[in-house]
C-alpha cells in the first residue's frame, strides 16, 4: 500500500494536481499511473477523501490533466490495495469498511495468527529472531523521526507479515498479508488511538516468549495484542466521514 504524503498543495489554474503525482515528474511532463495512484492513496489514508466518496473518472482526469484511461488504471492499482472498490454501472468508491467487517477481519487474524505463532516457535532460528528484532528497531526509529502515522501503521503491520513469512507457510502468509493490509487501512481510516510505542514494546515482549519456547504463552500474548489493536479502533466513526468535493479535497 502506498501511504507517502504528497507535498504541499497549491491549486493550479491548469495542469496536473500538485502533490506526489506532479512532484515525482519532471517539469511539464504528465503524471504517471503510479504517481496518480500514490497521490490518491495519500489523500485517502489522510482522510482528505472520505470513505464512501465517488472517485469520478472525469473529475480526476481534469485534476491530473490525463486521459480517463490513465485514471482508470490508477484506480485498478488502488483496488488491489483494497483502498477502493468498483460497483458495476455506478463507479469507483473509496472503501468504507463496516463495523462488522472490521470485527471479522480481526477475528480471522486471531485464528490465522495463532497457528502462525505455533509454527514460528517450532521452527525459528537465530537468524529469524535477528530479522524480527531488526524490524522492531525500525519501528522504534520511526517513532523518533518524522514518519507519518500511516507509515508507522504499515511498519507495525509488516511485523506480522514478516513473522508469517518466517514460518515458510506460503498460503498462511498470503492470507495474513491481506488481512494485515485491510486492518491497517481500517486503523488509518478510523483514526485508531493505538499507541505505536506500546505496540512495538509488545512485539519485543512477544519475541522474548518465543525465544523461551513458551508456545502457549506466546500464542496467548499475540491474541491479547490483536484484541488490544481491535479495541483501539474508534469504530463509531464509520460512515461519519466528511464529504468534500473531490477536486477540492485533492487540492488540500
Automatic annotation (TrEMBL):
InterPro entries: GntR_C, TF_FadR/GntR_C, Tscrpt_reg_HTH_GntR, WH-like_DNA-bd_sf, WH_DNA-bd_sf. Keywords: DNA-binding, Transcription, Transcription regulation. Residues 1-28 are annotated as: Disordered. Pfam families: FCD (PF07729), GntR (PF00392). Residues 30-97 form the HTH gntR-type domain. It comes from the Bacteria. The keyword DNA-binding applies. This is GntR family transcriptional regulator. The lineage of its organism: Bacteria, Pseudomonadati, Pseudomonadota, Betaproteobacteria, Burkholderiales.
Amino acid at each position: 500500500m502506498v501511504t507517502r504524503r504528497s507535498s504541499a498543495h497549491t491549486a493550479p489554474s491548469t495542469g496536473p494536481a500538485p502533490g506526489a503525482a506532479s512532484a515525482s515528474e519532471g517539469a511539464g511532463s504528465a503524471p504517471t499511473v503510479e504517481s496518480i495512484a500514490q497521490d490518491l492513496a495519500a489523500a485517502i489514508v489522510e482522510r482528505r477523501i472520505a470513505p464512501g466518496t465517488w472517485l469520478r473518472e472525469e473529475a480526476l482526469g481534469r485534476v491530473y490533466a490525463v486521459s480517463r484511461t490513465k485514471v482508470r488504471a490508477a484506480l485498478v492499482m488502488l483496488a488491489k490495495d483494497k483502498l477502493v472498490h468498483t460497483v458495476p454501472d455506478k463507479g469507483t468508491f473509496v472503501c468504507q469498511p463496516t463495523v462488522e467487517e472490521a470485527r471479522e477481519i480481526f477475528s480471522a487474524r486471531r485464528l490465522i495468527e495463532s497457528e502462525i505463532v505455533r509454527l514460528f516457535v517450532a521452527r525459528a532460528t537465530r537468524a529469524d529472531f535477528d530479522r524480527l528484532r531488526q524490524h522492531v528497531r525500525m519501528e522504534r526509529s520511526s517513532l523518533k523521526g518524522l514518519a507519518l502515522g500511516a507509515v508507522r501503521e504499515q511498519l507495525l503491520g509488516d511485523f506480522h507479515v514478516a513473522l508469517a513469512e518466517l514460518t515458510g507457510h506460503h498460503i498462511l502468509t498470503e492470507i495474513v498479508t491481506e488481512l494485515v493490509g485491510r486492518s491497517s487501512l481500517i486503523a488509518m481510516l478510523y483514526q485508531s488511538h493505538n499507541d505505536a510505542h506500546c505496540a512495538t514494546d509488545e512485539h519485543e515482549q512477544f519475541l522474548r516468549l518465543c525465544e523461551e519456547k513458551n508456545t502457549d504463552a506466546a500464542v496467548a500474548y499475540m491474541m491479547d495484542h490483536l484484541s488490544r489493536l481491535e479495541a483501539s479502533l474508534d469504530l463509531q466513526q464509520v460512515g461519519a466521514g466528511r464529504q468534500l468535493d473531490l477536486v477540492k479535497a485533492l487540492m488540500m
